[in-house]
């Protein structure tokens, strides 16, 4: 006589499969997240290699976070633009594979916090901001106090964040150049004192932010290590800051 499954037996099998799937799904998600983080670190490693080539051709300076050239009629350039145009870095290199559509900014727009144009006015000279002849989604933020913002005084004073060559940095292995973020760049003071989500640092890899340091190595910074007492481990302030170099 042919054996058939009863309805109860079928429901039991389905329940067992559902339990096994629920047990395996978190592990699969963690494996996928680790893969995205590894690819993100690989992106940053290539960015670091290109930056070191740049430094070799530029008296040990890495690409400036932002170079304001409006005074002579030329557009503003950012760190990633110089790497792309001078050293052929592919546009995809500047997008973390784990970034969501609100964790980044469009190279063609002003403003930040979105891969769309809704958070920033469209640039009138968008072609100047394209990489590989296409608008680019950037999900890494440059640390302005380390990389420098040249030719621009900040509101409330004449402070300039001038770039510093690597050979003059006290702790290049702990000086952050770029990390997971949602804006073009941010200042060391923001990293050191603010936990507000409106600021550009993003801890998208299980509460860690993938980071490229000024000696070319990559690593991760855990949420909470970029401000307060724990921030003393890393250089987010000006490289010559007494506070950060004790």
Précis, in short:
It is built from five helices and ten strands, in the order αββαβββαβββαββα.
Q: In terms of per-residue confidence, which ranges show pLDDT below 50 for 5 or more consecutive residues?
A: none
Number of strands: 10
Question: Beta fraction of the residues?
Answer: 5-15%
Strand order of the largest sheet: 8-5-7-9-10
User: How many alpha or pi helices?
Assistant: 5
Shape: elongated
Q: Which bin fits the share of residues in helices?
A: 25-40%
Q: What's the overall average pLDDT, rounded?
A: 77
Strand count, sense and barrel status of the largest sheet are: 5 strands, mixed
- H/E series: HEEHEEEHEEEHEEH
Structural class: alpha+beta
Quaternary state, please? single chain
Write up what this structure looks like.
It is a single chain. The longest helix is centred in the first third of the chain and has 51 residues. The chain starts with 6 loop residues before the first helix and ends with a helix. Helix 1 packs across helix 2. It is α+β, with helices and mostly antiparallel strands. Strands 8-5-7-9-10 form a five-stranded mixed β-sheet.
Structural key phrases:
246 residues, alpha+beta, five-stranded mixed beta sheet
Topology, please?
Layout: H1 7-57, E1 66-67, E2 77-78, H2 79-87, E3 105-106, E4 137-138, E5 140-143, H3 144-147, E6 149-150, E7 176-180, E8 185-186, H4 188-193, E9 208-213, E10 218-222, H5 242-245
Parallel strand pairs: 1-6, 5-8
Antiparallel strand pairs: 1-2, 3-4, 5-7, 7-9, 9-10
